Amino acid sequence: MFMKWVYANLVILLLIILNVSEICEGGITSSFSRKSNDLSIDMPLDSDVFQVPPGYNAPQQVHITQGDHIGRAVIVSWTTPDEPGSNTVTYWAENSTEKKLAEGIVLTYKFVNYTSGYIHHCTIPGLEFDTKYYYEVGSGNPLRQFWFLTPPEPGPDVPYTFGLIGDLGQTHDSNRTVTHYELNPMKGKTLLFVGDLSYADNYPNNDNARWDTWGRFIERNAAYQPWIWSAGNHEIDFLPKVGETIPFKPYTYRFPTPYQASHSTAPYWYSIKRASAHIIVMASYSAFGKYTPQYKWLMDELPKVNRTETPWLVVVMHCPMYSSYVHHYMEGETMRVLYEPYFVKYKVDVIFAGHVHAYERSERISNIAYNISNGVCGPVSDQSAPVYITIGDGGNLEGLVYEMTQPQPEYSAYREASFGHGIFDIKNRSHAYFGWHRNQDGYAVEADSLWLHNRYWHPIQEEASVASM
Ligand SMILES: [Fe+2]
Fold first, then answer.
1. 3-class DSSP state for residue 367?
2. pTM of the model
3. Residue whose C-alpha is closest to residue 267's, from 255, 275, 278, 259
């Protein structure tokens, strides 16, 4: 009888241990609790952030992006509402009185019943590295003046700070995200945007007037530092029922990329070098199967990355390859199956994605052993593999996704459904720091962070999260 009692209790104890270990299998699922008024609503059209600049035909929606492969060119874009006006950008270095001119192009497009303003794009070439430039757009009165900083010359130990925002939209939360990014003392110098920009396609006929409001909203930051674009599903704007059959039309007209400088054949996938980083932008919603232009481009690109010059290899895409949220679960699986072996082989340091409206950071894991007959089909710890960071938490009108797969998978280090932004701060060839900032916290507070050891220079060094709160 006594032995039966002992046996029964041992079984119960064993079950408890198994259960606890299952619960503890993964990393941290944050218990942070947001206030209940988190409903994300687009800011009204008369909000100050959407204000049209005063004056007849004043340039608006000014934004810049990198204009070549190494950071010595900038593409300036702006829109004039009433007439084409001037295509010229006047620019000068801070320490120079010599004003130079660059000539751009002007485009318009129609989308259902909407006709765009006059969209200007002007590439300024031949800039000096590490220099502050002022620039002016418009003609006569009003003329609008802005400035930007060019990056230092690419080199292995050049410190540089990137910001990360995704799935931004134009809600009050979106505005908080941009404000937190602007006021973050870590001072991002270039923003890596992980796709889903305006969410205009949530309006009837994808009301492109909401592309214009978004352009005016981001100007306060994007006119002063480059935003590096990647396309999300909200950029597709494919509405065949009303005759709109060209995917990515508004996005392509409005947000040019320097794709030809990296020998890409389409603006949706390309690479740039910036300081000590080599950034590869992938297109989740363009063909990427074997033998497609994007696949061929990536196969040419990866062996060319010079880790002696740019040690940090960063990939940006919209749809995450690893995500443990229920929403969009496994949507990135086809891209993962095809491309993960290459990202591991070439020791990509970190892959940033959006799409899932929440935050998640993975351990370094890979799932590349499967060969149809060996049954090896789960992620395993792999120090050659990238860290996967989902940062689709910019604050758009679709709101956050709270539902997570349970238990937390072993590969998931930290996950939380809050709006925020990221900072990727490269210190030198061996170390970089990543911090995630949620909008409810003070500007300097990091809710999650990680010291990254460069995979090329320190391929087997394990990393540890600094602090999660
Ligand atoms: Fe998305």
1. coil
2. 0.93
3. 259
Q: Supply 57's token pair.
A: 């035909």
Distance 321 CA to ligand 1 centre (A): 13
Give residue limits of the domains in the chain.
154-195+268-468
How far apart are the CA of 405 and the centre of ligand 1, in A?
Answer: 19
Q: How wide is the angle at C-alpha 121 spanned by C-alphas 117 and 123, nearest 5°?
A: 170
Which CATH architecture group holds 154-195+268-468? 4-Layer Sandwich (3.60)
Task: Please state, in angstroms and rounded to a whole number, the distance separating the CA atoms of residues 257 and 68.
Answer: 9
Q: Phi and psi of 183, rounded to 5°? A: -95, 0
Buried b (16+ CB within 10 A) or exposed e, 111-144: beebebbbbbbbbbeebeeebebebbbbbeeeeb
Q: Convert the pLDDT of each residue in 28-77 to its tens digit.
A: 999 886 654 556 899 999 999 999 999 999 999 999 999 999 999 999 99
pLDDT digits (tens, 9 = 90+) for 263-315: 999 999 999 999 999 999 999 999 999 999 999 999 999 999 999 999 999 99
Number of Cβ within 10 Å of residue 163's Cβ equals 26
Identify the active-site residue in 63, 172, 318, 328: 328
Surface-to-core class of residue 6, CB atoms within 10 Å of its CB (0-12 exposed, 13-18 middle, 19+ buried): exposed
Judged on CB neighbours under 10 Å (0-12, 13-18, 19+), 286 is: middle
Percent of the chain residues past pLDDT 70, beyond the cut? 91
For residue range 4-21, what is the model confidence (pLDDT) as tens digits?
544 545 444 443 333 333
Q: What token pair was written down for 320? A: 């995450």
Look at 468 and 260; give whichever has higher pLDDT: 260
Q: Pairing relation of β-strands 110-111 and 28-29?
A: unpaired
Tens-place pLDDT, residues 168-182: 999 999 999 999 999
- Angstrom distance (rounded) from CA 384 to CA 347: 6
DSSP per position, 45-107: TT-GGGPPPSSTT--EEEEEEE-SSSSS-EEEEEEESSS----EEEEEETT----EEEE-EEE
Ligand 1 midpoint to CA 234 (Å) = 6
Whether the pLDDT of residue 383 is over 70: the answer is yes
Q: How far apart are CA 74 and CA 224, in angstroms?
A: 11
What amino acid is encoded at 22 in this protein? E
121 is catalytic: no
Q: In this predicted structure, what is the pLDDT of residue 461?
A: 66
Task: Please give the distance, rounded to the nearest whole angstrom, from the Cα atom of residue 29 to the centre of ligand 1.
Answer: 22
pLDDT for the residue 201: 98
Amino acid 378 reads G
Question: What's the CA-to-centroid distance between 318 and ligand 1, angstroms?
Answer: 7
